[in-house]
Design goal:
This protein has 282 residues and is an alpha/beta fold. It is 29% helix and 23% strand. It contains ten helices and 14 strands. Helix 5 packs across helix 6 and helix 9 runs parallel beside helix 10. The termini are close together.
């Protein structure tokens, strides 16, 4: 497995970090976990195109995890890619229809691109055929406990603790070639997610709270700090631990120093804070 960090930030607009997006490459499959704002730009910067993505899995539908969904699908469609396989909690089908359905927000764009003679000729000149169908992602709504068997890889899921009951929230584990990668999504520490992390070779865990930072109690219970994440990861045999989802105010030299001190003291040396466009072999 090869992991490319396409977005390591939060909902905050920030030049250094796009919102959440993580690309796994396994054989011929390109598996994107979440697709927040700026992820498509970083996908292109990494030397890949939207049409290269074969599978997209959503942990939940906060905007910073799905804002580039429509852009990814539309761009891949315009490149002539086959329909993208998309998986995520309810209401993925309604969200997709809200973008690409006959009354969706993109219906005027899609009508113009597929019905106007000048647009049809542009499409034909690029090698397309008529009539040109609209984007039609292959949507599968999933829930905690869902598993998927890919070509040489398996994805499993667990219940995250984050924004229920308004949003269903998941974390994912992907196993291939005897290795296990876990992406926590956004979650507090709970038994389901802790078990999903067990014996992971590589864990990317969200961190929305800096070392020693105190948040409102209603928020803090869902936001483990670096020390708490490190303790959890060590308790279940994780081999490499990296934090993501850093907020702007946490991203100072002092903030990194404090987080890394907690991580190394409580977990060990195989740890760090991911940056956009980092690449890891798992």
């Amino acid at each position: 497995m090869k992991l490319t960090i396409l977005g390591s930030g939060s909902p905050e607009a920030y030049a250094r970090r796009a919102s959440s997006g993580f690309l796994l490459e396994i054989g011929d499959d390109r598996i994107l976990l979440d697709c927040g704002g700026g992820v498509v730009d970083n996908l292109i910067r990494s030397g890949r195109l939207p049409r290269d993505i074969t599978h997209l899995f959503f942990t939940h539908y906060h905007s910073d995890h799905m804002m580039d969904y429509a852009r990814l699908v539309h761009a891949a469609w315009d490149e002539g890619a086959p329909p993208l396989k998309v998986f995520g909690p309810n209401p993925l089908a309604a969200i997709t229809d809200g973008y690409f359905g006959p009354n969706g927000v993109l219906n005027n764009d899609l009508r113009a691109r597929t019905e106007l003679p000048q647009s049809q000729q542009v499409w034909v000149a690029r090698g397309g055929t008529l009539p040109r169908p609209w984007p039609a992602p292959i949507v599968t709504e999933i829930h905690a406990g869902f598993t998927f068997q890919g070509d040489g890889w398996t994805l499993s899921s667990a219940q995250a603790t984050h924004a229920e009951p308004i949003l269903d929230c998941l974390g994912f584990a992907v196993e291939a070639g005897g290795k296990k990668f876990v992406y926590s999504g956004d979650t507090g520490i709970n038994s389901e997610m802790t078990n999903l992390c067990r014996d992971a070779d590589f864990l990317v865990h969200w961190c929305y709270r800096g070392s020693g930072e105190q948040l409102h109690p209603a928020t803090q219970i869902f936001c483990p700090d670096p020390a708490q994440v490190a303790d959890m990861a060590r308790s279940v045999g994780v081999k490499r631990l990296y934090l993501s989802h850093f907020r702007v105010h946490m991203d100072s030299a002092e903030g990194h120093q404090m987080a890394l001190a907690d991580l190394t003291e409580r977990f060990g040396e195989e740890t760090g804070i991911v940056e956009d466009l980092d690449v890891f072999d798992i």
